[in-house]
């Protein structure tokens, strides 16, 4: 879908079935996308909390602020539209410590989603998750087009100031493959079967314009 097009209902929903069809591995990253079982021995990246569905957490120490859970797939075109509409606002909430924001990087759409989720986790270890997250959406290719390989995802880190060999190794070895599986399993437990899906204080935000209209989204956050 072109970013200029208004997302329709059919295109909004990204079903888990796609992940089953595209059962191709990419450098040992093989999460069981439909399983609700998590691996307690999985290596997890910085800022991740198992108690928060294995999401990457910002401002987890805060109390009496809205808690925003975002379920996304880096290959999802509609997720890119959500990021374009609300990404800066979410980053401001994080910077100003006005909300706890938890990113759940799902992998419904196949092997390149898995690779991108792993790479994003590696960027969290470098303190660059938000920058890398934004970059993936800005440069999002067509789904499973072959554009996102471990090599290209590692090289892309340089565009946001990541140049360490540790990051390259993390991406190329699929260090967080089991964690990607855990995120998928936790999403399944909450019956998340489409992306983007947003919860505010544990309540799912009704699909519609609030996902793409800044004023409506902000009102939903402030209402809690």
TrEMBL record:
InterPro entries: Thioredoxin-like_fold (IPR012336), Thioredoxin-like_sf (IPR036249). Keywords: Disulfide bond, Membrane, Oxidoreductase, Redox-active center, Signal, Transmembrane, Transmembrane helix. GO terms for molecular function: oxidoreductase activity. Residues 66-209 form the Thioredoxin-like fold domain. The chain crosses the membrane at residues 12-34. Pfam families: Thioredoxin_4 (PF13462). Belongs to the thioredoxin family. DsbA subfamily. PANTHER family: DISULFIDE BOND FORMATION PROTEIN D (PTHR13887:SF14), GLUTATHIONE S-TRANSFERASE KAPPA (PTHR13887). This is Unannotated protein.
């Amino acid at each position: 879908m072109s970013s200029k097009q208004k997302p329709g209902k059919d295109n909004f929903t990204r079903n888990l079935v796609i992940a089953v069809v595209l059962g191709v591995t990419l450098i040992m990253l093989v999460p069981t996308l439909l399983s609700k079982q998590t691996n307690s021995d999985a290596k997890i990246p910085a800022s991740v909390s198992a108690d928060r569905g294995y999401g990457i957490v910002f401002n987890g120490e805060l109390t009496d602020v809205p808690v925003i859970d975002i379920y996304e797939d880096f290959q999802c075109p509609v997720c890119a539209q959500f990021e374009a509409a609300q990404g800066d606002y979410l980053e401001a909430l994080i910077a100003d410590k006005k909300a706890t924001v938890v990113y759940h990087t799902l992998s419904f759409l196949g092997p390149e989603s898995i690779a991108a989720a792993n790479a994003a986790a590696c960027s969290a270890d470098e303190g660059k998750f938000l920058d890398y997250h934004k970059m993936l959406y800005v440069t999002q290719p067509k789904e499973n087009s072959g554009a996102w390989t471990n090599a290209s995802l590692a090289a892309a880190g340089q565009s946001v100031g990541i140049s360490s060999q540790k990051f390259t190794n993390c991406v190329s070895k699929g260090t967080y493959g089991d964690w990607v599986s855990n995120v998928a399993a936790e999403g399944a437990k909450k019956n998340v079967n489409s992306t983007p899906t947003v919860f505010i204080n544990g309540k799912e935000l009704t699909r519609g314009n609030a996902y793409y209209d800044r004023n409506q989204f902000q009102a939903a956050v402030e209402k809690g």
